[in-house]
Amino acid sequence: MALEDLPIPAEGILLAHFVVAADVARSAAFYSDVLGGTVVREADPAMVRLANSWVIIAVGGGPTEDKPDVILETPPDPHRTSAFLNIRVADIQAVYDEWTARGARFLTRPKDRGREIRCYLRDPDGHLIEVGQTVEKPRRGGR
Fold first, then answer.
1. Regarding beta strands 111-112 and 16-20, do their DSSP bridges make them parallel or antiparallel, or are they unpaired?
2. Higher per-residue confidence, 136 vs 43
């Protein structure tokens, strides 16, 4: 494993998504085999490079000295969430078809929402993932 394969910023900040998994190997396989990422570390924690970001996968656990009142666990209720992974794509229908063929189970087909087309799926532990394609053209000049 090369150092550039790990989520270590050369400067500034780097954003990675952390998920708690009941079975780390199963989740790493989902993010690599189904979503097309590359496993760059297999465990403790597992890390999957996905496009221009990383998904870090570990088992849950109790409080630690740096998070004394926090317990990490898989989602207890798949019908409620307070955060989710948002993946932006250039061609949502192509991604939907490809990932479905690889075993992804989407909640619905892509839906046109006006400014974007989007759909959702879950990883093996129930973490919600949004897949969206922006259809509104960006304005020039930053406005």
1. unpaired
2. 43
CATH label of the domain that carries residue 30: 3.10.180.10
| Identity of the residue numbered 3 | L
Q: What is the DSSP letter of 33?
A: I
* Average pLDDT for 99-110: 98
In total, how many domains does the chain have? 1
Residue 24 parent element (H or E): helix 24-29
CB 19 within 8 Å of CB 56:
yes
26 in any annotated domain? yes
Range of the domain at 94: 3-61+74-142
pLDDT value at residue 1? 61
Answer yes or no: is 67 within a domain. no
Distance separating alpha carbons of residues 54 and 47, to the nearest angstrom = 7
